[in-house]
Amino acid sequence: MMNRFMNQVMRVGLAGLVICLSIYLSIYLSIYLSMQNASAETTGVSTSAQSPPDLVWHGFISQGFIKTGTNNYLSNSQEGSFDFTEVGLNVTKSLSDNIDIGAQLFSRKFGPNENFNVKFDWFYANYQHSNWLKIKAGRIKIPFGLYNEMSDIDSARVPILLPQSVYPSQSRNFLLAQNGAQVYGFIDLGKGGSLDYHLYAGSINIDLPPVTSTAMIITQIDVPHILGGRLLWETPLEGFKTAFTLQNLDLDINLTQLGTPVKADLPVVQTVFSAEYTLRRLLLASEYQRQYVEITSTPATFNSRTNGEQYYVLANYQLTDAFAPGIYYSVSTPDVGNMVGRERHQNDFAFYCRYDFNPNWLIKLEGHLMDGTASLKTELNDNAPLSSLHENWQVVMLKTTAFF
User: Fold this and answer.
1) CATH at 236
2) Can you give the residue range of the structural domain that contains 11?
3) Interval 135-167: pLDDT, tens
4) Cα-trace Rg, the chain
5) How many alpha carbons fall within 13 Å on the CB side of residue 118?
6) Contact between 64 and 160 (Cβ < 8 Å)
7) How far apart are CA 121 and CA 63, in angstroms?
8) pTM value?
9) DSSP, residue by residue, 18-57
10) 381 has a pLDDT exceeding 50
11) Are 306 and 337 in contact (CB under 8 A)?
12) DSSP 3-state helix, strand, coil percentages of the chain (rounded to 5)?
């Protein structure tokens, strides 16, 4: 009991320290930027007219809190958890008029399995031949759907969690970026709007999941290839854009089941249809995803085919310059051929708001009404089967972020 109490004290203390650092950083940056602007006004030199810095730095630090009434979600959330901390620092540099490089270091405490392991979130070298032809190589963000490339930027969105049916936070570490190359560009269609295209190929690193049962132990996971592309059309109607994403990846898994070695191959094909409309302060978005998975194993223990369906509708409104509320409804069905049971679906009605104290510090509050258990993790719920968990449950989240 004493150890448990001390752990809670340490978590609260760490959360308080991060929040204090966030407030200090935001105040410092606000004062610094004000002094810079005042200096520019005094000298009569516009900061926009000055030459760009040799290096461009950005960083952020976030602290969140999550509480669920029943079922553990993302962390040990029934007791209330501060295991929702993120820190990142990125830098970009132009080497010439058509070559630039960049990288981001990232660390987070997210549930029981991620404990501030520092790593490169992404890094790249980029070459621009023209607006319609650019080449990027390295560990590159995956242009999947509308928002995957901003899933690591809390300040770029209103909700704490993007709709989890299409952008699952538990899979962020290997869905954010791929190791490989990308060809992309922008084509002006005149009165027909414009096209933005991305084609990419590479591989993905996936960490082994924690061992929760000796009956089945995963010993190796490889994603030897990922191929994909996204075509985004900025339509002639101002504020309206649509996109189509096609992605194929192959997972090779080695495991032991009751001491017997098993090799499994999982080809996955994903398609996403996306639409977004911005009208003054209102943003409306919706995406629909189909996911086809075929499992072939030796011996034929896990052979199966699934056809998953995921979609959401979202609305944000910038009520004032500092305050924005929003809602979304997100649905995830792992296999449309078998939808019987609470473990076969998860419907999420979310309502949230964001308040910006200043240009470098924000806070968010979010609630979720959940129906179904398809996206829950058995290892977070005492290894209980998903069919035995509470079908209707709630989530409350709070998060603050400081950034520059």
Assistant:
1) 2.40.160.10
2) 2-403
3) 999 999 999 999 999 999 999 999 999 999 999
4) 23
5) 6
6) yes
7) 18
8) 0.84
9) HHHHHHHHHHHHHHHHHHHHHHHHHHT--GGGSPPPSEEE
10) yes
11) yes
12) 20, 55, 25
